[in-house]
Amino acid sequence: MKRLFASGMALAFAVLVVATFARTPAAQTDPRVLEACEPGKQAIDARALPRTIDQNRCPVAGRVIEDGMAGAAVPPPGEGVHVELLTERGAQEFGVRRLEDGAIELDHVGSESAGTGAGPPAFTTKGVGECGDAGFDENGWRVEGTHVYRINWRTTPRDVPRRAAISAIRQASGNVADTLNGCRLGDRVPAGVAYKGYTARHAGVGGGACETDDGLSVVSFGALSNPGNLAAACVHTRAKAGYDVVTSSDVKLSKVGHHWTTNPNSRSCRGRYDIEGVMTHERGHTFGLGHVVEDYHPNLTMGPVINGPCQSSERSLGRGDVLGLDGKYP
Ligand SMILES: [Zn+2]
């Protein structure tokens, strides 16, 4: 039955390819389908693709592009999706953006983590406190108006009180929208965030791949493909001149392989990750920040390495985190 289904899918893709060629004579410059995109391969390996792809060379409807452990269902033309997979040791980002003509642009392909990513800055800020470090990496989207989200709080791990977990997630969302910082920098971000209560839905993140945008923003606990994965965040966007606009943003906090807490600074904390701190980092992505290089910016919230369990340093933004947000809303 499974094989029958697979060959049916292959046939469907073959028909799609033929139909696509028949419809668009303009794509005749190089009509060959890229090997990585051949029908029958449900998941397409991003590392085998060029950064910009003509859709006629890679029939993508209904398929997922994977970049290592991260991946994303290919969005429709004019939309984009960005995934971050946060592990205990670093993070991997991956973005798929589709232009109005259907062309596909890939971003952040390859393995990034602690020491790599956006490239070293002109000077090192290691040893500088979070208020002395002005580094940030801009991702090309922003929240317009208010980011509305729900929490599936029934998924909260048994050893964390639900009320405390909800409170930590809400606080984290406000930390970014209100640019909470210890550097006396005012809040210049007009975009807001609003919690609208419980949902029975789960964050639209499979093992580490973003599902199609359903327009709803959900935070839930669950499982990710690898027990070392702490969290995954998906940001869905719609193309707009200047900055793309966030249409939804899902976050899944993994409760497989490690434990969470809302009291990371308590003496009894052992190996538990701070819900508010990790969630603040993920909300940084929702609001359009990318990663700075951890080795050079260890004190910023948007470094890709959470500074370990039983600490809360990611809760408050550093100078660079705030400047990155401010820059979007001149
Ligand atoms: Zn991140």
Element layout with pairings:
Layout: H1 2-23, E1 43-45, E2 52-53, E3 64-67, E4 70-73, E5 79-87, E6 91-98, E7 104-107, E8 141-142, E9 146-152, H2 162-177, E10 192-198, E11 209-210, E12 218-222, E13 229-238, E14 244-254, E15 259-261, E16 272-274, H3 275-286, H4 319-326
Parallel strand pairs: 1-3, 4-11, 8-14, 9-10, 9-12, 12-14, 15-16
Antiparallel strand pairs: 2-7, 3-4, 5-6, 5-13, 6-7, 13-14
Helix pairs in contact: 2-3
Main sheet overview? 10 strands, mixed
Q: CATH topology of the largest domain, what is it called?
A: Collagenase (Catalytic Domain)
Using the coordinates above, name the CATH class of the largest domain.
Alpha Beta
- Count of DSSP-assigned helices: 4
What share of the residues does DSSP label as strand, in percent? Answer: 25-35%
- What Rg do the Cα atoms give? 20 Å
The CA-CA distance between the termini, in Å, is 57 Å
Portion in helices: 10-25%
Q: Quick one: overall form?
A: globular
Runs with pLDDT <50, length 5+?
Answer: 1-9, 11-29, 114-123
How many structural units, i.e. domains? 2
